[in-house]
Amino acid sequence: MNFLLLLAMAQHFEPTTLATDLRSGYQVLAVDLNKDGKPDLIGLAQGMDRLDWFENPGSSGQTWKRHTMVSGLSQPINVAALDVDKDGVPEIMLVHEFSSTPAKSKGTVTLLTHDGDVTRPWTRRDIDAIPTSHRLKIANGAFINAPLADPSTAPPEYRGKIPLTAYSAPTLKPVLINDEDSGVMHGLHVDDFNGDGLMDILTASFNGIALLEARKDGKYVRRILHAGNATAWPKSGSSDVTVARAAGKKFLATIDPWHGHEFAIYTPKGKGYERAVLESNLNQGHTVLAVDLDGDGNDEVVYGSRMGEVTLRYVRYDKTSKQWKIHSILDGKIATSSCVTADFNGDKRPDLACIGGSTQNLMVFENRP
């Protein structure tokens, strides 16, 4: 069932373009790199041989200075930030030398550290290599590395065990935490799903949406929340996932299936979830992000597609109709590969930053009242 209801913009966003040359822009990360209390941006582009960050000026209308962290890269794919040495500036984990074909992917895992001046090139130390290393997140004091597929498999089936791996501070020694997912694991999300103070991990793969609940002993217990798109393998499951809290419920929001055409919301029902497709004509949907944009205590969900008629939209839960309604942020100008949220201008409202794939751009969207 398609509940598409595209409305005029209900929330005002003021766009600012920070860069237009990020070839195959893939991921944007918000993190304070210079200890000034303002979130900066790392813009990762697969088609670039370097990793750049953009220094937040702290207020609207000023220039975000651009700095190069590291150069000489090949196919960078993801970064995450964690202050391993507790000096107030996070270390950056980077995965690069990526290919979606495991036999062609070295999957180098690199740690970047600063030398005291974060505007100068950072020091690179390679610490691991797992073919198709693809998505990085932070959970319970560790970097979490989600490879795209089992290193021994091949497209399009990718049948095998995906080695979800953790690197805990301070040693960063790789530890396998789960290998029950198979096919392609494209989505990785971290959330205190059960409210016990530990960060749980949600994955989106050919198997659907899985929850890995963190235990106090450092282990994770996995269960499937929903199978996602029911099309036969390898067109099954989900591609990206987030958790949205609205009307006292925990909804799931996904792109289905891998690089899929569907944006779906999963409503809790009994012991499971009821799936509803809100939009079914995306061309390579590639991001979902839950954030309370209007300050009413309920999350909206930002999502977008990176091919065709590129889109950047969000949905808001309507308590009266009990439906999610779709609103446009900026369609046609950013091939949305990744979005993050932070208060970039200091007005206490969550803003957005998104990076475009084919459009090669990095944009900040200030959330206006």
Brief characterization of the structure:
This protein has 369 residues and is mainly beta. It has strands spanning 6-7, 12-19, 25-31, 40-45, 50-55, 65-71, 78-82, 91-96, 108-113, 123-129, 133-139, 142-147, 164-168, 174-178, 185-191, 200-205, 208-214, 220-226, 240-246, 249-256, 262-269, 272-279, 285-291, 300-305, 311-318, 323-328, 336-342, 351-356, 362-368. The chain is built from no helices and 29 strands.
Which helices and strands appear, and what pairs or packs with what?
Elements (H helix, E strand, L loop, with lengths): L5 E2 L4 E8 L5 E7 L8 E6 L4 E6 L9 E7 L6 E5 L8 E6 L11 E6 L9 E7 L3 E7 L2 E6 L16 E5 L5 E5 L6 E7 L8 E6 L2 E7 L5 E7 L13 E7 L2 E8 L5 E8 L2 E8 L5 E7 L8 E6 L5 E8 L4 E6 L7 E7 L8 E6 L5 E7 L1
Parallel strand pairs: 1-26
Antiparallel strand pairs: 2-29, 3-4, 4-5, 5-6, 7-8, 8-9, 9-10, 11-12, 12-13, 13-14, 15-16, 16-17, 17-18, 19-20, 20-21, 21-22, 23-24, 24-25, 25-26, 27-28, 28-29
